[in-house]
Specification:
Layout lengths: L1 H31 L1 H12 E7 L4 E3 L5 E13 L1 H23 L6 H13 L2 H16 L6 H10 L5 E6 L1 H7 L9 H4 L1 E11 L2 H8 L13 H4 L1 H4 L3 E9 L2 E4 L14 E3 L3 H18 L3 E8 L5 E10 L2 E3 L4 H4 L9 H10 L9 E2 L5 E4 L2 E4 L8 E2 L1 H7 L2 H12 L3 H10 L17 E2 L15 H6 L4 E2 L2 H12 L3 E3 L4 E4 L8 E2 L4 E4 L3 H16 L4 H4 L7 E9 L8 E10 L6 E8 L8 H4 L1 H14 L1 H8 L6 H12 L1
Parallel strand pairs: 2-8
Antiparallel strand pairs: 1-6, 2-3, 3-4, 3-5, 6-7, 8-19, 9-10, 9-24, 10-11, 12-15, 13-14, 16-17, 18-21, 19-20, 22-23, 23-24
Helix pairs in contact: 3-4, 3-6, 5-6, 12-23, 15-20
Length: 637
């Protein structure tokens, strides 16, 4: 009995000693190394998970999706984990082989299974599967061998193997060596991302933007301008690693990120397609270096099409938004602005005849002015001068009216918003320039010849969009509306639907002046320089051609900008069209044969497909004075 009691006492004392030591050890760990252990446990048990909401879309005016964000995936390989897994397999196989060498009985099936697993999960095997399935798709046709070997030898936690993968790609990769294993064995990870896909990138091009909307060299288009709106919200949440699974920690019911919002553009895909087709055909025919087409809705300023093409060797691409970026001297399409100033000032006498002479050359004020052709008559009225697009006549009118008050002419142009930027939503708009009599900028000072030069479209810098906006105001009874590309943005969890109203800037002329401008533009299109293009049309068109020569100098070959600006139908304008074709190389360079045909082709297709055009214009054409005038001219032909 004493022996038993003695044993119990010794055991109890020992237990108490061990307990005391354990308690002191735990206290030491908590006090001395508690922070370190806490960070270690947290690092092993918790991680950060990035959640990204779905991206929004860019829609056209008929809710057709022009550009959309597609989910894509990065294939990432944690080669530190993969190496550890292979080392474990090799170690186990070495132990099995050692037992076998010592004569111990082993399970041959187990050994073969390990050997087969090692054989399948190898760098060579992974390279083979990636090359067979993805070499030409994501690695520029190059073998994955170097990338996979480098990653494996680095033994690091993050190695990008493939980017831009689809759901199907990832599912296929999960059958490959290493990637088939669990993440904690093979190290295969997937990160979700987004890319931008287009209904037709060739047509919409830089107006919408490019996939790499954050590239500083590509900060153009709606994708860049509305990137924050289109991109889904990004949220980072804590996840706990438990039983080989990730489990969100401390999240509320609304932990999912907001999806991106849809941007509703003014663009019309069908009209954009008409514009692209017509422009591409003419660019190839004339082998021009760059060109663009803008189609606007007259009443709203909505841009229905904005297509640009730039030559690259023998092909044409929408690599630059010529319509908003390209600054140039507009030439004869600018003559309407000169006439508008004189009409607004009440100085233009439509019955007065100006002497043009019998030659295609005449000195006007301080400068010798040259026409592309001899005038029809030695004396002509302002309407005849405009229709014939006589440089001599236009300069004679402006010199006669503003020789003694040249600044007044420039002030009149500014009231038309000439020299102003439109403030379009996308980046990259070219800076317009209109000098005045006090300009001190070097090489852009006011010269003795500046008034005459500006009168017919030189010494003034403007973009196609800025010129189109001016013509659109004439079509809109003198009301200038700001060109726009977006009408609204959809709602999501955090934001309500937004609608952007039409922005009326001001009135640049009276309805009577706008009507007179419409009249002389219609005359120019059907009886003047546009006659060969618009005769026999089934609708009326008001428009002006412009052929501007530049790069003039000793030893230099002159180059040309061919442009056309106008709107249709004349009696009730619905669409404004502006066409620019720069530096045509073949088939002539006059706007009447280079730019005007593009406008006619686009207008024909719109007239044939737009129900509004048919119902409001075609059916009621018998009551239209303009329509009857056009029919009369066609019959006389």
């Amino acid at each position: 009995m004493e022996k038993i009691n003695k044993g119990i006492i010794i055991f109890t004392i020992g237990f108490i000693v061990v307990a005391i030591v354990s308690i002191f050890t735990m206290i030491y760990i908590v006090i001395a190394r508690g922070k370190e252990m806490k960070e270690f446990v947290a690092g092993e048990s918790y991680s950060k998970e990035i959640l990204v909401g779905m991206g929004g879309n860019i829609m056209d005016d008929n809710n057709k999706c022009l550009a959309y964000y597609s989910p894509t995936f990065k294939a990432i390989w944690d080669t530190k984990t993969a190496n550890r897994y292979i080392s474990s397999l090799n170690s186990t196989l070495e132990k099995i082989s050692a037992k076998e060498a010592n004569g111990e009985k082993i399970n041959i099936n187990t050994k073969q299974r390990y050997q087969k697993t090692l054989s399948f999960n190898s760098v060579d095997s992974l390279t083979y599967y990636m090359d067979v399935n993805f070499k030409n798709k994501y690695n520029k046709g190059q073998s994955y061998r170097s990338k996979i070997n480098t990653a494996y030898n680095k033994k690091s936690g993050y190695n990008l193997i493939s980017d831009g993968n689809t759901f199907e790609d990832i599912d296929l990769m999960k059958t490959f060596p290493f990637f088939k294993l669990h993440e904690y064995s093979g190290g295969f990870k997937v990160e979700e991302n987004f890319r931008v896909d287009f209904l037709n990138k060739s047509i919409t091009g830089r107006t919408l933007g490019q996939e790499k909307y954050d590239d500083p060299e590509r900060k153009q288009g709606l994708i860049h301008a509305y990137s924050d709106t289109l991109m889904g919200e990004t949220k980072i949440i804590d996840v706990e690693k438990s039983a080989r699974q990730y489990k969100p920690v401390n999240i509320g019911e609304d932990f999912m990120p907001d999806d991106g919002r849809d941007v509703f553009s003014t663009l019309n895909y069908e009209i954009s397609e008409y514009a692209y087709t017509a422009l591409m055909r003419q660019m190839r025919k004339s082998r021009a270096n760059r060109g663009c087409v803008i189609v606007m809705d007259v009443a709203t300023g909505d841009i229905k099409a904005m297509v640009s093409l730039v030559k690259n060797k023998d092909n044409y691409f929408h690599s630059e938004n010529v319509a908003i970026k390209h600054v140039y001297e507009p030439g004869s399409v600018f003559k309407l602005a000169s006439y508008m100033v004189a009409m607004n000032d009440g100085l233009l006498d439509w019955n007065k005849k100006y002497e043009l002479g019998k030659s295609d050359r005449k000195k006007v004020g301080p400068r010798m002015i040259i026409d592309s052709h001899k005038p029809k008559n030695a004396f002509e009225t302002p309407a005849e001068i405009f229709s014939e697009s006589s440089n001599i006549g236009t300069c004679s009118i402006i010199w006669d009216l503003y020789e003694n008050n040249q600044q007044k002419f420039i002030d009149g142009l500014r009231k038309l918003h000439i020299g102003e930027m439109t403030g379009i939503e996308v980046e990259g708009e070219g800076k317009a320039f209109l000098k005045d009599t006090k300009t001190q900028i070097r090489n852009k000072e006011w010269w003795r010849v500046s008034l005459v030069q500006i009168a017919y479209g030189y010494e003034v810098e403007i973009t196609p969009l800025q010129m189109a906006a001016f013509y659109n105001a004439i079509a809109n009874n003198g009301v200038y509306v700001k060109p726009r590309l977006v009408t609204g943005i959809s709602a999501n969890k955090s934001y309500k639907e937004e609608k952007y109203p039409i922005k009326y800037v001001d009135t640049i002329c009276s309805p009577e002046v706008a009507a007179k401008a419409n009249e002389i533009l219609t005359m120019a299109a059907h009886e003047g320089t546009g006659k060969s293009i618009f005769k026999n049309s089934s609708y009326s068109f008001a428009g002006k051609t412009g052929t501007a020569q530049y790069n003039v100098g000793k030893g230099k070959k002159p180059t040309y900008n061919a442009s056309f600006a106008g709107f249709f139908p004349s009696e009730k304008p619905m669409y404004t069209i502006y066409v620019l074709i720069s530096e045509p190389q073949e088939g002539g360079y006059y706007a009447s044969s280079v730019a005007a045909p593009v406008a006619r082709e686009i207008a024909d297709k719109i007239a044939a497909t737009d129900k509004r055009f048919f119902n409001e214009i075609i059916i009621n054409n018998s009551t239209s004075k303009v329509w009857n005038r056009i029919a009369e001219m066609n019959n006389n032909e």
